[in-house]
Amino acid sequence: MGLENKDTGAADGKTARTITFTSSHDNINLNVSQPDGPHVIGTVQVHEDVPADVAPKVEVVNTDSKETSSKIKNVDVTEHLLSLEEVCEKYNVKADAMRPQDSYGLSTAQVVQLLETNGPNRLTPPKRKSALHKFMICLMSLFNLMLIAAGILVYILLAIDYENNKSSIYMGAILIGVAFMNAGVEWYQQRKSENTMAALLQMIPAKTHTIREGRLETTQSADIVVGDVVYLRMGDKVPADCYIFAANELKVDNSSLTGESEPQERAAGNSMRNPLEATNMAFNGTLAVSGDAYAIVVRTGDNTVLGQIAGLTAGEEKAQSPLSREIATFVHIIAGVAMLTAVVFFVVSMCLYKNFGLGIQFAIGTFVAWVPEGLPATVTMLLTIAAKRMAAQNVLVKDLQGVETLGAITLLATDKTGTLTRNQMTVANVWAAGTLYAAMRSHDDAGQQITSPDEPGMHEVLVTSALCSSAKFDRTDVPVESRQLLGDATEAGLVRFAANRMPTDFDDLPQRHAKVFEIPFNSANKWMLTIHQLAHANGPLTLLIKGAPERILALCSTILTGNAAVPLDAGHRVQYDETYRYMASRGHRVLAFAQLQLDGSEYTADYVFDRKHANYPTTGYTFVGLASLEDPPKHGVREAIGRCRSAGIQVMMVTGDHPLTAEAIARKINLLIGETREAVAANTGRPIAEIREDEYDAVIVHGESIPDMSADDWDAVFRKAEVIFARTSPKNKLEIVARAQELGHIVGVTGDGVNDSPCIRKADLGIAMNQSGSDVSKEAASMILLDDNFASIINGIEEGRLIFANLKKSIRYTVSHSTPEVVPQIMYVIIPVPVMLTSITILMIDLGFEIFAALTYAWEPPESARGLMKLPPRKPVSMHSIAMLRARRARHTPPALHPSTGEPIVPGRLARIARAIRAPFSKLWWQDRFERSEGEVLVDGDLLSWAYLEAGMISAISLTTMFFVVLNSYGISPRQAQAMAKDTSVAYFNKDSPDYTYNGRTFTGEEQFYALNGARTGLLFSIYILQVFNLFICKARFRMPFGRFMFRNIRTFYGFSAGLVLLVIITYIPPLNVVFNSSYKAIPLYWLIAVGFGFLLLGYASLRMLVLRKSRPIKWNRTIDGLHMHPTIWSTRHTTHSVVDAP
């Protein structure tokens, strides 16, 4: 492999560093491009669907935070060139290539010493943006730049005309200071959020199977040391750089390291000199996607290949979430309105008063009044708090996007085994030699009890269960019931069954009948095959196979009856079908067993089998029997699925099991209640073809039929309320998710296995299991259930819906003060009146007491116990929404695709900016903006109407009344105040203003000054008091704004109390009166005016709610008949948080 390092010019004018690896044998070019930009950790664009012969180049794109002269270090790995003996000698470890499971490994003393010498197996955290860099990014936001520009403009005005603008001497510094303070708050919250998410991710430490002192045990990956013997199996993440000395069809996904899109085969032995091409090496951070292997750790931590080239993959940029984009869009629109309003009223002011400085001050005040400066920081804080609360309920989101997405899910596709069921397989029935046996005592079991392991056919089933397996006991020096099993739950159930039935012979079986060849189970074949030194009359070797019954039966030509094999005929198939149907209908997982005694004349004891050349028999096997394994549903799953469906979420089972097994389990857990087409036909005695679509509610789709389904077929399937996909492959699962997303569904996918990981990654929200889930699935997921309890998803969905509702309430409350801040600015120019509200005071309102109150919504409980879960998802999928979505896609030109990869071509930064500028001048842009959406958006017309027109105007009237009443108490009437403000030849209301005489009374400059500031203080308290009423009113979305639910959130009182303390401080501490134009002489008696308007606002909100209930009644989800919602003793513990009957 060669290495080339060069600089190239990027599309946006920046320099990008490109490192090209050239492979000598696979003709693969790996281009790692590092353009100038932020580092992105693990951001690898892999084009997986393109065959190597079509697309010989695989691009791994990483961005860099700054220009760097760093270069790739030499990959310091040479062990791949050594023999096993040399590696063992180098690391003083004992490993056995012939019997790897019996390797001794390292001693405990060696491990302790090496861990102390080399440190833990961790990578040094990648270089991140400095705190100053992040702060500057926050400071460069649109709002802050505009505030800084306004502050600079104030000082320019002071420089031009100091005398007429000296009253604003503090305003410039405060505007700039507020920009820095706003950036500081946002920076602090981002940092706090990052730290919170990092701490949550530490809750799921990676673990590895190691062999130490001859015992297989589970070890934290951080405690792995060089020389450790590790056991890698399908689904594991490779914990360090490892030298493989024994492997069984191991394939690793190196895409995170090298970008190779296809899994790479790994085995003992190597002929390549370059370590990255070595077939006997598995590197840190890669994933084992099939097979298993034993390996010796040769590098840990920063000494691994990943650690040596970590600069190529380091970084931290993340895509902006949909909710964040929605908020950003709203904020930018408000900023645009603010700028436009400021410009318009600046022009009006210039036309009326011909005073440039006055116009600029007015424009600044108008702009500041419109913009909700604290909104972005508030949203970040709300989401962070929600993420921590979800973690407390065993739902771990990897980033804040998961918080919002979970509450928006419309379709949940879930695997069966390990997700809906306990993943604790127990053999229930065995059918062998034409006889059905019951492995457990059960009152409803038709089989007879197993009396001896040597009964006809039973011995073969037990031997196949023990030998044709990758499950392993951790030790053999204790009784079977005291051992731990490492392996797949199905195989573990079979192995334990065999061990219990053959207690004296079991431990010796692998030694007496050594394995000489193996093809591991995979989702394509759906079977596992092994060949053992199991002698018989015709030779020394026997082939054993187990797997999906229909696949195994298709490979057989004979069947074992008694102690002899006879040709498989129609009668045997009927008996097989009846037994299979009986087992599967009980919800059991069914496996078939077969064998073939290999002819010794062709397959000698030293015969070398080769999978690639398939030099082993592939048909003509002898069918041995069936075994069914019971995997009962998890406690609480039935109620959880019932609540999901009651919440308007479509729940589908996507499983590799037989349709009958899937249906039986589904009917136990509320997933399937209605009848299928076949059931209706059977019940009515009509042919299936005569059954109409509206006569059945459930459909079970076999995976083999998926490739032949048309778009209309998919539409018909998703229209059904109850859907099961059975016998699916990973490719089928991917297509199911993609088809659902095409219809507009927000798809959540749950799973725990390697075969689930592609669709988990594809889904809008991938959900993995922490305890039973594979490393591959947890790597792909964006959310992890820490307790493996499906019922935890319900808590997460409710929490997601609650945070969306509370975000909406918080925004509704926050923007309500914009109108009462803008109206005084307009009155100042149009009427005119004295300056009622200064820019400094507006900023104090927005970033002072308002932010305290807005944050309290993070802890707001739902209005009623189950109101949230009786509502449909906020973006429901219906026939109308699908039609709208397809119409929108039809009128837009699809993105250009890369000719070799088929992936959409992402335009450069300049092209994106140019497109954004041109967009508003196109018809499509406006058509999309004004197209009515069926779903609920964060900022809708109802919210804007309440905030800006209804509550906003009532608050504006309140503060105007308060202002003039207080001003009149000082002897200055509204008419008098207007006359003084209109006289532009003299500047009144300053301490040094000339005396003003009206109706025989003279007002000195100092009296004018204190009168105006007293009125401003009353106005400030008016906004505060009205917003306290509004704080409670915004809690009520479906109910009247009265009742105990309004006071359940104790933090509400903390929030407005903190705001009151702030107001009292700036009012009654005289030095602060100078800055905020307040007066310590303010009389609290006048605040009762605002209290009266507060009750008026409350009454109006109540009347409004009554009108809305009549005109736009709430659309609750329909009740689903037949759901079994009686909680069990185990599931009640998981339903303590929220959501019961709709109000």
TrEMBL record:
Please provide one cellular component term from the Gene Ontology annotations of this protein: plasma membrane
Instruction: Write one Gene Ontology MF term.
Output: ATP hydrolysis activity
- Organism field: Coemansia reversa (strain ATCC 12441 / NRRL 1564)
What domain of life is recorded for the organism?
Eukaryota
Record's subcellular location: Cell membrane
Q: SMART domains under this entry?
A: Cation_ATPase_N (SM00831)
**Mind telling me which PANTHER family this protein's record contains?**
CATION TRANSPORTING ATPASE, SODIUM/POTASSIUM-TRANSPORTING ATPASE SUBUNIT ALPHA
Q: What is this protein called?
A: Cation-transporting P-type ATPase N-terminal domain-containing protein
Pfam families (alphabetical): Cation_ATPase, Cation_ATPase_C, Cation_ATPase_N, E1-E2_ATPase
Question: Which segments constitute the Cation-transporting P-type ATPase N-terminal domain?
Answer: 78-159
Sorted UniProt keywords: ATP-binding, Cell membrane, Membrane, Nucleotide-binding, Translocase, Transmembrane, Transmembrane helix
Just give the chief location class.
Answer: membrane
Which membrane topology describes this protein? Multi-pass membrane protein
What stretches pass through the bilayer? 135-157, 169-188, 327-348, 1009-1033, 1053-1071, 1083-1103
Please list the GO biological process terms of this entry. intracellular potassium ion homeostasis; intracellular sodium ion homeostasis; potassium ion import across plasma membrane; proton transmembrane transport; sodium ion export across plasma membrane
